[in-house]
Amino acid sequence: MTDPRMEEKAALAAMGWSENPATLDRAVEQDPALAQAVREFADAAGMLAYDANQFEPPRALRGRIMDLLGPQVAVEPKPKLSLRLLHFPSMPRTMTYALAACLMGVALFQAALILMLDSRLDSFRASATTAHPNPFSGVQLVDLAPQGDHGDAKIMVAWNPKTRCGMVSMSNMPPPPPGNDYQLWVLDPSKPAPVSAGVVPRGATTQHFVVSDVEMARPGFAVSMEPEGGRPEPTTGQILFAVAPGS
Length: 247
Known about the structure:
The chain has helices spanning 4-14, 21-30, 32-51, 59-69, 93-131, and strands at residues 140-146, 154-160, 165-171, 180-187, 195-200, 206-210, 220-227, 239-243. Strands 5-4-7-8-1-2-3-6 form an 8-stranded antiparallel beta sheet, with no helix packed on it. By secondary structure, the chain is of the alpha+beta class.
């Protein structure tokens, strides 16, 4: 059984009022029950500190506590941040000038490199444009007007005057009667007759063509019904679609 006097000392020690802590320590080592009581008193004292209302202690009490603790716990003022800590170590003036000259040289080299790359890029773009010209540059799109009632049929011609080649596109065109073909013509007033651009194959909706002897930049175009295989000049007079030169 634990000595009641030792329990009282344990309670006082938990509150920080122990007069002879060595005696209590020896008793705790010999009595497990007393050791458990010491732990319970310490936990209770800690909970008591949390539950107690906080208030500003009197100035006289604070002074006595500071006198007991001694000068070693005096609060030292925090050092102020000085801009001098950010200063670089001093160096000779000649070294400073040399460093500035090196940095300027690097900047000039980078600027010259950028200008050289820009010049090379412009040259590359120019050479690429010359070597591979845009095949659609200057292409003209021409809608051929129907000569009569042809329903929803539509014919369009794409013509490149630089290469003198083009493409005809037909939509909603009924197939020609047996023994006949649709034939495309290029109309150039400087020529005595329309220039044949070939027969549109039966069932085809597009056809490429090349007419090398046309000199006009914006010639006219026409589509007629001709005997199967086409003719060098229009023979039947059945012009289905046409557009005048210069349109």
